[in-house]
Amino acid sequence: MIELAVENNRHAQHQIYSKFAPKMLSVCRQYIKDVHQAEDIMITAFMKVFTNLKNFEHKGSFEGWIRRIMINECISFIRVQKKVKFIEDETYFEERHNNIESQFSVEDIQFLIDNLPDGYRMIFNLYAIEGFKHHEIATMLNISEGTSKSQLSHARKMLQDHIIKLKNYHNGTE
Amino acid sequence: MEPNKLEKQFRDKLNAREIQPSAQAWDRLDAMLSVAEEKKTRKPFGFLFIAAGILVLVTLGLFFFNQNDTVISTPNTIVGTETKNDTAQNPSEIRTTPIVESQKQNKAVAASDVQPTTHNNAVEGQQKRTNRQGVPIINQSPKSNQIIKDKTIEYQFSSDVAIKDLPKVVEPKEYVFSNERKTKSDESLLADLDHKVKESTNKTTTVKVDPKSLLLQVDGEVEYSFREKMLQKINKNYQEVKVALANRNNE
Fold first, then answer.
1. Residue B197 counted as domain residue
2. CA of A56 to nearest chain B CA: how many angstroms apart?
3. In the 8-state DSSP scheme, what is residue A53?
4. Is CB count within 10 Å lower at the N or C end of chain B?
5. Complex ipTM, two decimals?
6. B37 CB near a chain A CB, below 8 Å?
7. What is the pTM for the complete model shown?
């Protein structure tokens, strides 16, 4: 299928697209609040996928490769459009061991992530969801490892505050 | 700093999530892909266009370099124009002398032939108005003199002076003065004139620099017009190519 798509076989390209688009749109949505904007970025990322398909070495998973392209596209979009700047601070909070055992719906999770500032959201996504290490994030975003760590701790703290608020909100309505 | 349970839950749920893109999304991607393909297939032609553009530029450059060469050779023609200026000044000197001369001669005619003075008076009136008209009326003055004078006046009024005839123009000045000084008999005057004219014609043969410059000038003009035509053609073709490219890009 990939070989066919390399030769610009439109049918093969469409099959790849149909298979991965919903998942990839979900990935883009993690980083970008607006669904339409996320879709735009997914399309441009898919363009890159198809134009660089011949460069794909069949080593890792194809999905992982596409996902990486999506994430890079999202990051560059946020950095260019939103002009996110990371403040170089190395202070991070003492990890509070939180024991929030409650279950959240996907919508709630997305809502919580959406309410983080762009920079926090980006680093939280990269670290907690994608599982990148701090030094990887630092090179990806061209920041220092310390900044990545401090941003993550800020993001986590803010997230916990939001969770408490959300819980209170749910308790209030129930 | 290890991801806690909450984050694990986040990850699992988000990774499991799927958002169905809109139906137009594939159409847009499809359109983008076809545009990219077209660009790829047309790339060689694009290179051809670029090559053609470079060729045009090079030819243009060559043309301009040639033009610069002719510009360097223009000093010859400038010399020619300088001599023109000299001749343009000379006729004015000549013009003043003929009046005196003709008046003298008219008087002489009146004395010897008893011709009607009214005619002379009329002639004088004409002379005052225009020196050009006055000159031919001098019947006694040699024909060659007339011709030369006419020529000098022609030079004055026509812009395209033939440099070839320059020596002739310079000559009359001398013999006109001699005419004035000597005031000999007509026959001797004629003889003198003939002699001088012959000399002047001989001199013209010796002066061979001016024809060259003239030829150069003419050649330059011919070349220039040809070059202009070529430039116009090239420009037209270039514009066509440009329009074609623009249309192609717009598609």
1. yes
2. 18
3. G
4. C
5. 0.78
6. yes
7. 0.49
